[in-house]
Amino acid sequence: MEDHCGSILIADDDAGFRALVSMLCVRAGYDCVEAAPGAAAVSIAFAKRPDLVLIDVDLGDASGYEACRELLDRFGQSMPIIFISGTRTETYDRVAGFLLGGDDYVTKPFEPEELMARVRRAITRTRQPKRFPSKFRLTPREQEILGLFAAGLGTQAVSEQLISTKTVSSHTQPGCFRSSGVHSRTEAVALAYREGLFETAGAPRA
């Protein structure tokens, strides 16, 4: 097991699913708290702010979207939220989640490794990771995309998170990274680790 990486609030009305996700997160070094109703999830978060909230869109007593709004009203964009849903899986559902302020949107079923990569990336974003050294002259968007790749996401997953495949493609062409002295996405990620922007587990350096 990795060292303690942060705390995660898992809100889902399916106890079995909560237990599964909690097991994955604990194995990765996170502390987990489970909640079933949306109101309970919000109350728990208000009482002790988690580093990340994983929340189902449908929570029985309330919408995950409503809970997201309450959490962002209290904590602002510093609160990373990942929506999860096995029923609302259309593109417009994901878009709605992003527009409401969610950091990511995962549909069931999912690959455990991909979920954990997304979790690490969301938590990394809020812990003020070091910026890529200015001498490499990467744009903010290139830095964001590079961070997603470094967290373990593939091109398709990054495209889904950023909505536009065209955006990812245009920022990962070889010429975009050459100003940094590298010639491929792999070299850019390796350079980011060497410069201390990311840890191998996807978490920021202390």
Total beta strand runs: 5
* Shape estimate: globular
The ordered string of helix (H) and strand (E) elements is: EHEHEHEHEHHHHHH
Q: How many domains?
A: 2
Query: In this structure, how is the largest beta sheet organized?
Result: 5 strands, parallel
CATH architecture of the largest domain: 3-Layer(aba) Sandwich
Q: In words, what does this structure look like?
A:
With 206 residues, the chain is of the alpha/beta class. The chain folds into 2 domains: 113 residues, Rossmann fold (3-Layer(aba) Sandwich); 61 residues, Orthogonal Bundle (Arc Repressor Mutant, subunit A), CATH 1.10.10.10. The longest helix is centred in the middle third of the chain and has 15 residues. The C terminus is likely disordered.
